[in-house]
Amino acid sequence: KAGVTQTPRYLIKTRGQQVTLSCSPISGHRSVSWYQQTPGQGLQFLFEYFSETQRNKGNFPGRFSGRQFSNSRSEMNVSTLELGDSALYLCASSFEGAREKLFFGSGTQLSVL
Amino acid sequence: AQSVTQLGSHVSVSEGALVLLRCNYSSSVPPYLFWYVQYPNQGLQLLLKYTSAATLVKGINGFEAEFKKSETSFHLTKPSAHMSDAAEYFCAVSSLRNDMRFGAGTRLTVKP
What we know:
By secondary structure, chain A is mostly beta strands. Chain A has no helices and 11 strands.
C-alpha cells in the first residue's frame, strides 16, 4: 500500500511569488491535514480537509489556502511568499481525522529567497 | 483550546539507559494523546496513542507512556535506549474536533 506522497520534495521561490504543494493521501483516507514545521515554531497546524470540505483551520493568514479533490488528493497554496514562509510543509492523512493515527508524508521543503 | 508542553527541547542519554521524555497537556475535554517520532529528512511516525482504554499505553520499538489525569501528563519512557532511538519526539493532543496540536518536540541523543 503506497504511503502519503508529497510533491515536490524541494522548492525554491522568491519573495512575492506563489507556490502550490501537492499531497496524495493513502488510498481510502478521506482526511488530509497540513502542518508547517520550522525550527523556531515547531509543528503548526494549517488546516484539515475531509471529503472536499475544510473542517478545521489553524491560525495562519489568508495567504495560506488549500483544497481537496474528489479523489482526496489535496493541494496547499501560499500566495505572496514571505521569507518567514520558509519551512518544511507536512501533509498527513487518515480515515476519519486526527483522533486516530495520522500517516505523514516526507514533506516539501520550501525555501523563500 | 487544547495544547501540549514538552519539557526539555534536548535530552541526552547513554545507550542502555532509561529514556524519559516529558509531556503535559491542557484540554477541556477528554483528550486523545499521541507520541510521534521523526527521523531526519522524514515525516512523523506514530509511536503510540492514548484513547482512555488503558492508562499505560505500549507502543512500537519498546516505548510506552502513562496517562496521569491528576498530573495532566503523558510522559514517554523506554527502559533501555538504543542508538537507533536518536530522533525528535513529538507529543500531540487531539479531541473530537479532530484538531491535533503538537508540542515543540524533544530531540533525543543517545551516546555510545
